[in-house]
Write a structure and sequence with these properties.
Blueprint: E1 19-24, H1 27-38, E2 44-46, E3 49-53, E4 59-64, E5 72-76, H2 79-92, E6 96-98, E7 104-108, E8 114-118
Parallel strand pairs: 1-4, 5-8
Antiparallel strand pairs: 2-3, 3-4, 6-7, 7-8
Amino acid sequence: MWRDGLSPRLTCMSIELSHIVIPARSKWASATFLASILDVPTATDREPFVSVKLSNGAAVDYVDAERFDPHHCAFLASEADFDATYARIRSTGIMYHHLRGGRGVYFDDPDGHHIEIITRPHDIR
């Protein structure tokens, strides 16, 4: 039961993601890779993190780690940004696959994290 007794479907919150921390064998290599694929400014150092800032103000913060499980990160892109991002993915030679029934692409970063680029948010039920 929610504290106010209302289901999340009945309320509208003004909460946004600020940042997410992703472990990496090399925080600089992973952050640089993501920044180059997304064509966003080069990562910045905010010790102990290396941050990749996104256009909506959220950040992907990489931190050095020795052992970790893969994470999944999905990024929403405009049609034009998707086309440019997809071209950069193809030019790197990394393995990728498409979403079924929509414009999207999945690929793994150098640490095995699953990255998704989509043009429409998934239907949240």
